[in-house]
Amino acid sequence: GQNIDQPTEMTATEGAIVQINCTYQTSGFNGLFWYQQHAGEAPTFLSYNVLDGLEEKGRFSSFLSRSKGYSYLLLKELQMKDSASYLCAVRGGRGSYIPTFGRGTSLIVHP
Amino acid sequence: EAGVAQSPRYKIIEKRQSVAFWCNPISGHATLYWYQQILGQGPKLLIQFQNNGVVDDSQLPKDRFSAERLKGVDSTLKIQPAKLEDSAVYLCASSLDEQQQAFFGQGTRLTVV
């Protein structure tokens, strides 16, 4: 089976930096995704990591450590529109590319 | 490029009734997923298609749920009979192939009363 763990909720101030962690335990590993989901809307793709290290894309960065079963999503210069749920999804299992999602982290950005 | 289209957006039914959802993936996408997302949780995979074949349906409650993708393009997901615990958003997603990122539709919000 697979287990993906994220904090349920986080709050941060506009303009600040926030780090959302994701830990996972899977029988195999074929990549990790981060998605953003605003209330009532579809998840939208943010990043993909398959090798260890940091991937930077504008204000968002994602880090992966396969040996530790750990990833984080870093959001810089927070804006009010960043208030959303952030979903970590792992492709695990031998030969499987199906992404399994965590429960998501609800981020609230306040002025 | 048009995104993943789903209909209806909202549906309210009584328990024991049946309901069907429709999904039109992005053109050319061979892989199609149906996910169930209960309020406050992450999406849970119900079924994955590769073209018109089923890749994984291990978490689909087959006594009441069925899905098909007969021509390898559009897909329908059916629930018969519905239970209260089926209240959720049903998300359809597609990708070029199973190794590429998935693009999600807006979902169908089902309420079973």
> C-alpha Rg of chain B, in Å?
13 Å
Shape of chain A: globular
Number of strands of chain A: 11
Number of strands of chain B: 11
Strand content of chain A: over 45%
Largest sheet of chain A: 6 strands, mixed
User: Which oligomeric form is depicted?
Assistant: heterodimer
Mean pLDDT of chain B: 94
Largest sheet of chain B: 7 strands, mixed
Biggest interface pair, counts? A-B, 20 and 22 residues
Question: How much helix, percentage-wise, in residues of chain A?
Answer: under 10%
**Apparent shape of chain B:** globular
Number of helices of chain B: 0
Structural class of chain A: mainly beta
Question: Radius of gyration of chain A, rounded?
Answer: 13 Å
Topology of chain B as a string of helices (H) and strands (E):
EEEEEEEEEEE
Fraction of residues in β-strands of chain B: over 45%
SS-based class of chain B: mainly beta
**Poorly predicted regions of chain A:** none
Key attributes of the depicted protein:
heterodimer, A: 111 residues, mainly beta, six-stranded mixed sheet, B: 113 residues, four-stranded antiparallel sheet, 49% strand, globular
